[in-house]
Amino acid sequence: xxxxxxxxxxxxxxxxxxxxxxxxxxxxxxxxxxxxxxxxxxxxxxxxxxxxxxxxxxxxxxxxxxxxxxxxxxxxxxxxxxxxxxxxxxxxxxxxxxxxxxxxxxxxxxxxxxxxxxxxxxxxxxxxxxxxxxxxxxxxxxxx
Length: 144
Known about the structure:
Distance between the termini: 80 Å
Structural class: alpha+beta
Number of helices: 4
Largest sheet: 5 strands, antiparallel
Strand content: 15-25%
Order of helices and strands: HHEEHEHEEEE
Helix content: 40-55%
């Protein structure tokens, strides 16, 4: 009768078992480990750490984008409140306006029209002009 360990040694020679015990490197800590071929982390702690870092990076990018949109909107609101319909790009940049952050864009009347929520404006390389608020009727909800 063969020894139990010898029998296990023979089982480990099957290709399926070798494939399930392939050598991998943890994406978080770099440690070498063995397991399923689709496993990416050596332990639950490394998996949690990686997911937390990825989530916080996405949150930080989202927060930076929303902060820039909010700053642009406040600047445009101030211009509308002072009845200004045009302003130079130099002055806008001095106020902290970020021309790369918008909520909408289209080409209209040989100019680029941009939107920051409900405020629209036309932009040329030297200035923005035609600053207006887009008035749209909001649909009434049936549930109060």
